[in-house]
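quick one before i forget lol
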Amino acid sequence: LIFDLQNKNTITREEAKKYKYTYFSIGVDTSYSKLTHDKISLMAIGITKDRKCVVLKGESYNNKDATQPFAPSDVIPLINTFAEKVKEEYGFARTIYIDSADAGTITEAQKYKLRTACIYEFAGAWKKTKIITRIQLQQSWMQTGDFLVVAEDCADYVAELNKYSWDEKNQPED
């Protein structure tokens, strides 16, 4: 396994609410395939005053299991509803970062914002840091106890961390 999610890295919702946060954001990873188990994942994080990164809340959707497949235009209202839940429970995540490889969903988000006067900003995720460097950063945060996950509200993320591993070429599996 790449990540070793230990008890020191998981907290309860009540524990997460005790932190003082300076920043919130939401990340969206997309996959619309009916052929794979890849999901559309919505993740909310908060950065605390003492510089911890807390994964607060997650939701995911999969077209493979959907009776009526969804498209980018269907996902944007789900993202907005998710952001409202995060705002009510923790705080305002002004910027929502969408997978930069998914121009369709980003375009739909911009259209949604114009049509509805949505308060959120939508931006492509910044992915210029190499994957191996992102892994090293997260591993170091986890070792120092500065990366926390609200396990009860991030079940899919916890499951993903507990599966993410190296392939036979010593590269992270996609």
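fyi Strands lie at 10-11, 21-29, 40-48, 53-61, 95-98, 121-124, 147-150.
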